[in-house]
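User: Can you predict the 3D structure for this chain?
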Amino acid sequence: MSFTEHNVNGLIFDTSDAISAAGGIVHAFTTRHGGVSPAPFDSLNFADNRGDTAENLLENYRRLGAAVGFDASRAVGCRQIHSDLVRAARAEDAGRILWNDRPYDADALITNETDLPLFVYGTDCCVITLYDPVSRCIGAVHAGWRGTAAGIALKAAVSMMSYYGAEPYSLRAAIGPSIGKCCFEVDPDVAEQFFALLDPAIDERIEKRGEKYHIDLKDINRLWLLRAGIDPARVDVHPDCTKCHPERYWSHRAMGDRRGGMAAVICMTEGAQ
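Assistant: Here is the predicted structure, written as C-alpha cells:
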C-alpha cells in the first residue's frame, strides 16, 4: 500500500491507500497548499497559536472539509502537550476545534462516533490515523519524539481495542509526512530516552553520527503499531521528510517559529457498512 495525492481546486492533500481501501471513511494528511492564510502562514495553515487569525483558520478547515468530504463545523482537536495521553472524543465535542475550545489536553483522540472529524497537528512530528472498519472506530495520534518514545501509537491502538472492541486483524493505520531519519538529528539526552526503553528493535532505528544521533521516528511508530498486532500490509508510512521538502510541507526544523502547521484528519461517514 502507499499514498495518493489529491488536488481539489489547489488544495493539496494525501490519503493512505490502506485506509481508503476499507471504505466508510474519509481522511487526509495536509500540505501547506490551498488555504487562505497570508505569509508567513501561506497558505493552508492549521497552527492557531502562532499569530494567524481565527477567521483564516476556520476558512482553512472549511475548505479542507469541502475537499475531503467531511463537515468541518463538527471537527474536534486536542491541546497537544507532547504526552502519551489518549482521550475518547464524544458527540458533544463536535465543533471544538480552535485551541481555546478544544476539550482535552492530550495527544491522541479516539471515537466510535460517525460524522465526528478527529484532528491532530504536526510539522516535523509524526501524525497517525487509525481505522477499524469492523468495529467501526477511528483514532488520530500526534507523536513527537516524546510521544514516540512513550509508545503513544501503541497506546492509541490498544485503547481502541479496549473501548470499542477493535481487533488487530482488522485495524489499519497510516503515518503521515514527518521528519525523516535523514534530518532528525538530536543530542545524546534525547537518544537516551529511547535507549532507556532497553529495546534492541528500537536501538536499531537510531544511528550515531559523530556526537549526534539520527532517529527514525516514523519507523519506531510503525514498530509500535506492529506490536499492537496490526498486519504490516495494513500500515502505510509516508516516504516524505518534511524538512527535506519545505516547498510542500511546514517544518519547524527548516523554518523555525515563523511558519504554519499541517494536520491529519479522519472521520467515519454515515451509512457505511
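The chain has a mean pLDDT of 97. Residues 26 and 125 are 22 Å apart (CA to CA).
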